[in-house]
Design goal:
The protein is 18% helix and 44% strand. By secondary structure, the chain is of the alpha+beta class. It has 2 domains: 148 residues, Roll (Nuclear Transport Factor 2, Chain: A); 100 residues, Beta Barrel (OB fold (Dihydrolipoamide Acetyltransferase, E2P)).
């Protein structure tokens, strides 16, 4: 079982899933798949029933996934579980947007198939799909949401959908799928990089030069160890860029004037 391939494939399936393209998901469903949706009563057993249910779905909603991470939890000889976590914005026809913190657990199992010529081969199929939305957590709580009743209900977030996504290898062999309008800056730390986002910070095994080469239209290199997303630069002081979250990123002294012009031009 090629788990690295399945980690990547799981993320790709979910990206398409929330682009209202469920065919990649259908293609890898086990015939006896168990699907547990995020809402009350959403439990469906078998590929036949699940595809029938999706065929009846007709809605005007669109979705945007943010800060996606796909990770292998465990594996055995012919099965494994992969967890995909991300923020998801749901766009409604009345221009409202609601964000939820979603987790999808996929259980992959190898099954034998026989082609028309009688040749047998093994294919990984999704045996279980479990979807959950995290509820807000009060800082006073540890495990159980004791103070949940004290918290406000769902809040509205940004109305602007992400226009580009970055796919970057995580330091723990996961895959990160990040919206470009959520990434503030990138820092080189020894043999890995730290990626600072609006809601989280991630570690990547990819070098800072590799990230810059992959996404030159997103990042500007202002120092040998730092990339910034110019959209999040609030101001430029002497030899440093001040980001919208209040953090400061050093600017190369030798290239300060040129970098300052580049940031101004890209704002």
């Amino acid at each position: 079982m090629n788990t690295s391939e399945l980690v990547s494939k799981s993320m790709d399936i979910i990206v398409h899933y929330y682009q209202n393209d469920i065919q990649p998901f259908v293609d890898v469903m086990h015939e006896e798949i168990d699907w547990y949706g995020p809402c009350e009563g959403q439990i469906i057993h078998s590929k036949k029933l699940l595809t029938q249910t999706f065929a009846q779905e007709d809605n005007p909603l669109t979705f945007e996934t943010i800060d996606m991470k796909s990770s292998l939890l465990w594996k055995e000889r012919d099965t494994c579980e992969i967890l995909v976590t991300f923020l998801m914005d749901t766009f409604y026809p009345d221009n409202k947007v609601i964000r939820c913190d979603q987790r999808i657990l996929l259980n992959w199992k190898e099954v034998w198939r026989t082609d028309e010529d009688g040749h047998r081969s093994v294919e990984p199929k999704i045996r279980t799909c479990f979807i959950a939305n995290a509820i807000p957590m009060d800082g006073r709580d540890m495990i159980y949401p004791v103070h949940f009743a004290d918290m406000p209900v769902a809040k509205m977030f940004s109305m602007t959908p992400a226009v580009k996504h970055l796919t970057i290898r995580g330091r723990d062999n996961s895959l990160l799928y990040l919206a470009d309008n959520e990434v503030l800056h990138v820092k080189s730390v020894g043999h890995y990089t730290e990626i600072y986002c609006v809601n989280n910070t991630y570690e990547s095994s990819e070098g800072i030069s590799a990230i810059q080469e992959k996404y030159p239209d997103v990042f500007l290199r202002i120092h040998k160890s730092h990339l910034v997303n110019p959209a999040f630069v609030q101001s430029v002081k002497r030899y440093e860029a001040v980001m919208t979250d209040g953090s400061s990123v050093p600017i190369s002294t030798r290239k300060y004037a040129a970098i300052r012009r580049q940031i101004t031009d890209q704002k």
